[in-house]
Each structure stands twice: as C-alpha cells, then as structure tokens.
C-alpha cells in the first residue's frame, strides 16, 4: 500500500498535535479565568502546614489542570512572601499528583466525539455575551479538542508502522535495558522542557503507543521523563525573583529528580506490577485491537496515565516525611547575611488566638503597626546606603505591603456587630492609622528609590542629606526610639529648613547639578512633604481616641466576677 507522507502522516500528525496543544491551552485558560484568583486566595490561606499544602496543591492543580501554572503560581506567592518555603514544597508535591488527573482524562477513548463537542462549545463561546459562560465554553472546547487532536495524531502515526526506515530508527528507543531506559527518560525530559508541558508530551506518547509505533513499556518510560522535564518551567519563572522563589523552583526540580532516580532502578519491577494491575482496566496493553481492519493499542494510553498517577503518589508518600529536610537544605542555597535580618513580610504580634479578645487584640495591632512604621523607617537607611539596611528597596517595600494587608485584614476582623460604639470607634481609628502608615511607607519607598537610582554632585548631595535628616527627625513624632541621635541642646532648638527653602536651594544649584539631579531632588522633596503630612496625621489619629481608657474599660468588662470563696462578696440571693 502506497503511503502519501504529506496527506496520510504530516497533515493529521501536525494538525492533531496543534489541536491537542491548543486544547490544553484553551482548557487551562478557561478554567484559570474562572477560578485562578479564587484558587490563589485559597492557596494562600490553605497552605499553612505541609499536609494542608499537599491537599491544596492536589485540589487546585486538579481543577486548573496545569501543574505548570500551579508551580509558577506557587513560585510567585513565595516571591511575594504570601506562602512560606516549607508549605510551598508540599504544595508542589500535591501539584504533581493533581496533574495526573488530566493524564487520566486524556486516556479516555472519546476519539472523534471530541470534534462534535468542540464545535458545539465553539458556537457557545462565539455567540454568548456572558463572560462566565464564555470561559466555561472555552474550557469545554479545549477539553474536547484534546481528544480529537489525540485521535488525529494516532491515525496519522499509524502508517509509520509500514515504513521500515522509521521503525528501525524507533527501535533504538526501546526501554528494554537500563541504558535505553535512561535514554528514553532524558529524551522525554528534553522534549517536555522545550514545549513546557508534560501533558503535551504524555499526549504525544499516548498517540505513538496507541498507534503501535512505541511499545507500551517505552511509552511508560517516556511519561517518566515528562515528569522530569516539566520542572524547567518553574525554574525559568523564578530566574528574576527572590531567593525563596528560586528555592521553591529548586524544590520542584529536586523532588521530581529524586523520584525519577528512585523509580528508574525499580522500573522493570514496576512494569510487571502495572501489567498485573491492568487486568482491572481492560487487560494487557501489549495486545492489539482491530479497528476498521487496522491494529490499535487503546490500552497503552490507560497504562501510561495509570503509571504516571501511581508514580507521583508514590513519590509524594516517599518524600513527604522529608519536607523539613528539603527546607533546611534549600535555605542554605544562596544564603547570605542579608537573610538573617528581620522578615517584615510575616506578622510578629497578630496572634489569631486572641482575635476574639478585644483587650488583647488591640495592643497586638498597635505593636504590629509600630513594627510596620519601623520597617518604613528603614527606607531612610537604604537611601543613606547603610551597611545593615535591606539591599533592595523594591523587595523591602513588597514585604511591608504584605504586612500592611495582614494588619488591615486582622483589624477589620475585630469589628463585631455586638461591640459597644467606643470599641468600634477605636477599631476604626486603628484601621485609619494602618492606612496612613501604609501610605507613609510608600512615600518613604519613593524617597529611597529616587536617591538610590541617581548619582548626585557634592552640592546636590548636601541638599539630599539635609532633606533626609529633616524627614528622619520628623519621624521621632511617631517613633520616639528611632531617628538621629538626640542633639545636645534644649528641646525645640533643633530646626531644619522647610521644604520650600530646600526647593529654592535646588533651583539655585544651576551649573552645579544637572537637570536630572535637580528633577530627582524636587520629586524627592515632594515625597518628603507628603511623608511629613502623613506623620502628623498618624499622630493626630492616635490622639483622636483615648485608647488606654477604652481598653481599660474593656478589660474590666471581660474580667470574671470574684467568687465568694476567693475573698470577694457573695452574690445577694433574689427575693
């Protein structure tokens, strides 16, 4: 039988592969548009412990159907300081389990029905005006295209069995020895790294196996390599991010690498176990089935999907007890003295256990807000280039912004409907102070950023130094323990030039400073002026409510009534 390579092989294979990958993209995009923000919020809340992290990773990846998107999301949350490194490692373990659900779905023998369903949902997507309905239709259309694309690929690959040259080449990719097994794993890892999708690689392998081009053992070996190659995406996503984000990516790489290294020596034993287990899923995957007079191997995709699922579950169960070891080892990767400084992205005083105790929760908020102010004051140290100051103003601002959100969320949760008005008024005052503090920190960040990115002449630098000292001294109004050393002269005799005078000095620099320098100083003075206004506003907000008096009354209301046997007055019996 003559084979038209273009019509019988290239068209269905390339078209099928394109539709398969387009289906993956549509399904992932549709589901993520529907739920990724909720999933991100859920992950940030749920990933508190390693066990919860595994469960959250499995659930979310099972929903959004993309371990790549999941690991990139985790790396981003670690970079933002929302998720710590230890639970992030467990989330990645769970993501590897969750993604196998998609591999199992791909193995379903839906075939040509995918074209009918994709056409139907494409019409829904085109004519619907509701964004939610459109995203659901996009997900369903992508899901259907996966099956139709896989069916096209399988049909296009089948004629290759009648081409001796191709079969001779593919015969070198037989997982019949450990050397050849490692070769198959590395080739699959390389392909996956190039196309950034383990699901796509496994789909291609399923097509080759179903068409009889690859024997089922080799197809299973390729699925093992796909799990290894998918780690490249999380690593690429972390390249320009924080060290902890990089460590989360390294956790993904090391986790999958260790799993593959453990599984490879056990591969041929596990294959026999898989052959035995396949009797509950249809029989021996090596036995062909005649469809239209042609041999097909419909159980190969089932075997590949089952093996991939069991591998990831086994890998997680094996390595989960060592999450703490992973964390300790990864924390030493790229460790510097800068990491020993305080982490302002994590609250220190906001104890959830006392959130229902007004008299204890309010002082916790005040302490955390004061800590937020201290973090903001460090921007002056950054601007001055002090040795122990945070090295990157952007990263430090990100940490303070996370802390600010935690303070606002904790404080807002204190507002209960049954609280007296004076207590509600106090909580409102705390919320306003936290908001002004966040705005002040943002202005301080602008100060540090502008100073750090401009090189000033000597005379321009002198104005900058005076401006920074002025802001530093102003901070003492709300941070008594921070700022320049107490001057050896009576209170009230320390004066700094006003912003207007500093602005006039800047304009008078003339040829002693470039236009860029003068523009930077003027913008800097604007940030300092806003910062000083916010300092005064924070001080006024603290005085707007007699907080100590309100707290004292709340503490008395919460104090238990003394019992008679404890020396107090016995209650008077009712008449």
Care to give the gist of this entry?
The chain has 575 residues and is mainly α. It is 70% helix and 1% strand. Helix 5 (113-127) packs antiparallel against helix 6 and helix 20 runs antiparallel to helix 21.
What would the keywords be for this entry?
two-stranded antiparallel sheet, elongated, disordered C terminus, 22 helices, mainly alpha, 2 strands, 575 residues
Please describe what this structure looks like.
This protein has 575 residues and is mainly α. Helix content is 70%, strand content 1%. It is built from 22 helices and two strands. It has helices at residues 5-46, 50-64, 67-79, 85-106, 113-127, 131-157, 164-170, 178-195, 198-210, 216-229, 231-237, 243-263, 267-277, 299-319, 323-331, 358-384, 393-412, 421-452, 458-474, 499-507, 515-543, 547-558, and strands at 289-291, 294-296. A hairpin with a 2-residue loop joins strand 1 (289-291) and strand 2 (294-296). Helix 8 (178-195) packs across helix 10 (216-229), helix 10 crosses helix 14 and helix 20 (499-507) runs antiparallel to helix 21. The longest helix has 42 residues, at 5-46. It is elongated. It comes from Pseudochelatococcus lubricantis. Residues 552-562 have a biased composition (Low complexity). This is Phosphate:Na+ symporter. Keywords: Cell membrane, Membrane, Transmembrane, Transmembrane helix.
């Amino acid at each position: 039988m003559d084979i038209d390579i273009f019509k019988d092989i290239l068209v269905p294979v390339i078209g099928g592969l394109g539709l398969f990958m387009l289906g993956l993209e549509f399904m992932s995009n549709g589901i993520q548009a529907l739920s990724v923000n909720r999933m991100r919020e859920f992950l940030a809340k749920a990933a508190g412990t390693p066990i919860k992290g595994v469960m959250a990773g499995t659930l979310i990846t099972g929903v959004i159907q993309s371990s790549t998107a999941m690991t990139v999301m985790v790396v981003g949350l670690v970079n933002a300081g929302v998720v710590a490194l230890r639970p992030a490692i467990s989330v990645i373990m769970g993501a590897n389990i969750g993604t196998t659900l998609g591999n199992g779905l791909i193995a379903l023998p839906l075939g040509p029905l995918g074209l009918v369903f994709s056409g139907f949902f494409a019409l829904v997507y085109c004519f619907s005006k509701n964004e939610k309905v459109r995203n659901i239709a996009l997900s369903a259309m992508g899901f259907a295209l996966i099956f139709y694309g896989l069916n096209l690929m399988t049909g296009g690959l089948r004629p290759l069995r009648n081409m001796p040259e191709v079969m001779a080449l593919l015969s070198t990719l037989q997982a019949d020895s450990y050397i050849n097994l490692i070769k198959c794993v590395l080739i699959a890892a390389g392909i996956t790294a190039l196309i950034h999708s383990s699901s796509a690689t496994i789909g291609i392998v399923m097509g080759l196996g179903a068409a009889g081009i690859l024997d089922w053992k080799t197809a299973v070996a390729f699925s093992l390599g796909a799990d290894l190659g998918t780690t490249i995406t999380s690593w690429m996503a972390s390249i320009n991010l924080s060290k902890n984000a990089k460590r989360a990516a390294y956790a993904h790489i090391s986790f999958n690498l260790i799993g593959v290294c453990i599984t490879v020596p056990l591969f041929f034993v596990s294959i026999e176990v898989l052959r035995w287990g396949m009797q509950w899923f249809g029989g021996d995957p090596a036995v062909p089935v005649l469809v239209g007079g042609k041999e097909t191997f419909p159980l190969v995709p089932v075997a590949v999907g089952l093996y991939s699922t069991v591998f990831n579950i086994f890998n997680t169960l094996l390595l989960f007890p060592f999450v703490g070891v992973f964390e300790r080892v990864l924390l030493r990767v790229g460790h510097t003295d800068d990491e020993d400084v305080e982490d302002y992205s994590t609250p220190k005083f906001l104890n959830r256990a006392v959130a229902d105790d007004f008299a204890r929760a309010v002082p916790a908020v005040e302490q955390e807000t004061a800590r937020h102010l201290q973090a903001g004051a460090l921007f002056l140290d950054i601007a001055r280039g002090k040795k122990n100051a945070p090295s990157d103003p952007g990263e430090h601002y990100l940490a303070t912004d996370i802390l600010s959100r935690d303070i606002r969320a904790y404080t807002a949760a204190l507002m209960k409907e049954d609280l007296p008005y004076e207590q509600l008024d106090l909580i409102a005052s705390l919320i306003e102070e936290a908001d002004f503090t966040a705005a002040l920190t943002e202005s301080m960040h602008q100060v540090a950023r502008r100073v750090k990115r401009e090189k000033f002449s000597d005379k321009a630098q002198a104005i900058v130094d005076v401006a920074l000292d002025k802001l530093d001294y102003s901070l003492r109004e709300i941070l008594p323990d921070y700022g320049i050393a107490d001057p050896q002269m009576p209170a009230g005799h320390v004066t700094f030039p006003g912003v207007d005078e500093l602005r006039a000095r800047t304009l008078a620099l003339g040829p002693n400073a470039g236009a860029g320098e003068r523009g930077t100083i003027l913008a800097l003075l604007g940030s300092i002026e806003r910062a000083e206004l916010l300092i005064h506003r924070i001080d006024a907000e603290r005085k707007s409510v007699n907080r100590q008096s309100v707290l004292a009354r709340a503490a008395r209301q919460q104090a238990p009534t003394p019992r008679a046997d404890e020396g107090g007055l016995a209650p008077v019996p009712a008449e």
